[in-house]
Amino acid sequence: MALFNNAGGLTLLDLLAVALFFAVWLWLGWRIGHPSAARPSVSVLMQDYRLQWMRVMAARQPRIFDAQIMMSLRQSTSFFASTCLLAMGGLLALIGNVDPLQGLATRLTNMESASAALQIKLFLPLFMLGNAFLKFVWANRVFGYCSVVMGAVPNDPDDPQTLPLAMKAGHLNARAALNFNAGLRSMYFALCGLAWVAGAWVLLVGVAVTAWVVWSREFASASREIIHGP
Is 189:25 a contact under the CB 8 Å cutoff? Predict the structure, then answer.
């Protein structure tokens, strides 16, 4: 235990809590993308709707409505990417000067917190925000690919290229959505990572709460029942 205390004031419990944090984050991402056939996640259910959207789009004239939806999706990814950059800038500034945070951490834990330990703890939400930013940027790019392929879909529904191109656009849309959802999960866990400032036990509670929020929204929400219903 002394070895960990010398390394920035972190304990073995801190390291175990962080290991569980990453394990739960990675497991949730895999489970949401690979649910059981009996209970698919919202993300998987929405993939079918995205493909159906492109089938309908192929026969719709004009396609202004579809272009507006794509513009809205790309704006959402841009907004969240910008939000991540702002939050990362704030965290970097705080890592450079943790003095304002030391008093709060001391009051929350009733223990004096070393500056090095607080800086290390802040790198956890910083990492998650960085991952979220990359996911949102890539989602924006793939939505752009989808828009181009949609524009290549012939206006004639009977053209032999119409449906295959529409399905390509649908699959690109679904891939972009998967990255967007992964970015949102990273933002959830970035907020959870801030709990580490208050101690390892608080981080463990935060992991449990965050995991429940993410899982329930994908598998047990009212929105899911509406989407999955007849």
Answer: yes
